[in-house]
Amino acid sequence: MTEELSPAERYAAARIRAAEEATALAPFREMYEFDLDPYQIEACKALEAGKGVLVAAPTGSGKTIVGEFAVHLALRQGRKCFYTTPIKALSNQKYADLARRYGADKVGLLTGDNSVNSEAPVVVMTTEVLRNMLYAGSQSLTGLGYVVMDEVHYLSDRFRGAVWEEVIIHLPESVTLVSLSATVSNAEEFGDWLDTVRGDTEVIVSEERPVPLWQHVMAGRRIYDLFEEESDHGGRGSARREVNPDLLRMAREENTSRYNPKDRRRGKMVREADRERERRSRGRIWTPSRPEVIARLDGDGLLPAINFIFSRAGCEAAVQQCLYAGLRLNDDAARVKVREIVEERTAAIPAEDLHVLGYYEWLEGLERGIAAHHAGMLPTFKEVVEELFVRGLVKAVFATETLALGINMPARTVILEKLVKWNGEQHADITPGEYTQLTGRAGRRGIDVEGHAVVLWQRGMDPAALAGLAGTRTYPLRSSFRPSYNMAVNLVQQFGRHRSRELLETSFAQFQADRSVVGISRQVQRNEEGLEGYREGMTCHLGDFEEYARLRRDLKDRETDLAKQGAAQRRVQAAGSLEKLKPGDIIHVPTGKFAGLALVLEPGVPPGRSNGHRGHEYTEGPRPLVLTAERQVKRLAAIDFPVPVEPIERMRIPKTFNAKSPHSRRDLASQLRVKAGHIPVERHSRGRAAAADDREIARLRTELRAHACHGCDEREDHARWAERYHRLQRDTRQLERRIEGRTNTIARTFDRIHALLTDLDYLREDEVTPHGRRLARLYGELDLLASECLRAGIWEGLSPAELAACVSALVFEARQSDDAVAPKVPGGAAKAALGEMVRIWGRLDALEEEHGINQTEGVGQREPDLGFAWAVYQWASDKGLDEVLREAEMPAGDFVRWCKQVIDVLGQVAAAAPSSTAPPSSQGGSTVARNARKAVDALLRGVVAYSSVG
């Protein structure tokens, strides 16, 4: 029973309640059926106090509540709020959520595909759209009070991350910024930067999962807890978690029973029996099949589940495997509901396209409660899967990692088949950050008491390493910001060159680089203090000991160089002598483990000296196979012959000699000892050292003896101090070079870009030329190439379909490069224009190299990819979907995505190209703008035109 409050305490509590009820937060909290978490309340209060906020919290913890409070504040204050997301699917989803809550008249949507009620007080958009509005000085920015940047940790994305920093830097000071991020380990550092560029920003970090997460490993039919004691769950407690000893024992058993390659000597039947015994002994630790996994989770009440497979084909195959296994997760009523929803959402798709899109196979899986989700799917299909999953009508989704990028699809269980994925260059282990992001989908707030992450047992799995992956909280945010050509002209146009340079210096990339320099600078200061002490220690009363020490170093360096040259020369001579050896030569191995008498069985020099012998690369030099006097047959290497070798005798090798027979080796070794055992070993004379006749060494020795410090009694003491001084000075210079390399890096890149654009007449110091103003309207990876193509007029006279084919080369990038097969392209004028585009790129590439602009640093123009030109040409020429997809050998989802990107760039080209009344040549007005608009209309049909919004 609580103590009764005094009248004074009751009055104070009443005043606090009254003050809280007068805030904007009070009515906002009443809009939700659940209480807000402490971190959400803290962030909302900071927003209402006029501060910007950075909220870093786990996936699924409800951090978007803070973004929605910014929307609430904007509407209450009569101001605008822009809600930005990294992907269109997330924008569509957020638009639907906000439209339901505040009404469709108050909420708009702007993506590359859709424009709905764009002048509404609340507009959801992709981050690129807001960046373009800022550079264009859009009137829509008038009255903007709040910007919510959802998934702001996207700024570390190698390809698109720079856009987030551009927006943060260029937003007007009057705009309050709400940054929502996944849990990152350097949130304070990011918050410090936001504080620097945006003003007062409060950092709120929550590492507490709203639903505890249990980690498991599934081996065979059993599901094991990863940790023996998991009172920590999602990171709430501090209990120590030990790896389940059952898993450690299973890993040890698997390692000890693993098939030994040495068993190749045994008979086939014996080996098969051993393997069968191994299979039986392993018993319960096989990797379960996908249908087995889903069936087991269904039996344990752990569905719905998302099974992450890092392969599109793997996701589709998993669905088929479950169908073939007869898996059914929906009852009759659910199947009927699924069919109703699917038919309603896909009603706009022509019947003739359904078969091409794999509609019926997809529908069968959905009716059974099973689906795939990946970027190769038609967007409409993906959205239907998302809707059905949230409604509980799809209970098992096989997805690629793109599902973890913010789409609201929480599950009770997340399954990881493997802990390795293809990163675009190689198969690499997933990082702790990726593991956290993927497993963060497990546990539905308000539905599940706990979430579950299940990793499938794989051969060679290390449970301790998995525990480390699951327990690591390190996920640092790293800037990927780099200036681009479009950014440069837009900045100079708005601010001039000097101010633009200063703005770029405020980027998070430079902020991080400067912070990393602080520690190095302190080390340099400490080193300089040490150098001063060493200088005192080597001071000599007879003269300049620093000069004397330099002479000693020069002498030592020269002697070392000559010694290395001599050793290299001897190695060449030794290799030459080995090449002359023949089978039957008797030699004396001068050094190494097998030093002594040896008979050459094989010279180890391949025919023509072009390839290695039996897998040995010839770059290692000759590798003779010899029989030693101790009856060993060994292949020697160049390291065994530091000096040239010559045969001391010869003997015949019997044709019956078998190197694998101990008897043969013994007999031939006996003959070898009899034949040459009495011959004395000749010591190889190295001859006169090169240093003895070197004039530079003679000069240095003379100067050394003549120096005043040479006669000092404490010379060697001073020399020790001088050596320490030299080493510390060398280390200090290296640190200074590192500082120089990290300081002003962004500004130096901008200077190189400015110089190149000046050479091409896009910029003249602070002035942006007409060519530059055209470039300012072109966004994308190949912005400068697009501008140069317009400038050269190579797209004039092309039909809309031909223009679409050319523009596709600016956006398309094949998932896997195939240089062996030339891509199919349209003939005639389009083929000529595409060839000219590649030639223009070649000139730009040479110019970038001249200016030190490096593509590996994320700056510069990659080569245009013609791999989508034929497909988009066919589609713009009104060909059927079946024919286009069959020839393109491309999933429908990829085809739609690339078409929409081509449409986006065609819109930019239409805006940037000269108008039809402005003649670019004597032939008359420009046709590019008009045909770009026609190409957009030609592409926006069928599957490309389908949209879930607007």
Kindly summarize this structure in a few lines.
This protein has 950 residues and is an alpha/beta fold.
Low-confidence stretches: 230-239, 261-265, 609-618, 916-924
- Number of distinct helices: 34
Largest β-sheet summary: 8 strands, mixed
Q: What structural category arises from helix and sheet content? A: alpha/beta
- E-strand count: 24
Verbal overview:
- With 950 residues, the protein is of the alpha/beta class.
- The chain has 34 helices and 24 strands.
- The strands form 5 sheets. Strands 4-3-5-2-6-7-1-8 form an 8-stranded mixed sheet, with helices on both faces. A 7-stranded mixed sheet has the order 10-9-17-14-11-13-12, with helices on both faces.
- Strand 18 and strand 19 (596-602) form a beta hairpin.
- Helix 19 (485-504) packs across helix 25, helix 28 packs across helix 32 (892-912) and helix 28 (800-811) packs across helix 33 (928-939).
- The model is unreliable at 230-239, 261-265, 609-618 and 916-924 (pLDDT under 50).
What descriptive keywords fit this protein?
950 residues; alpha/beta; eight-stranded mixed β-sheet; globular
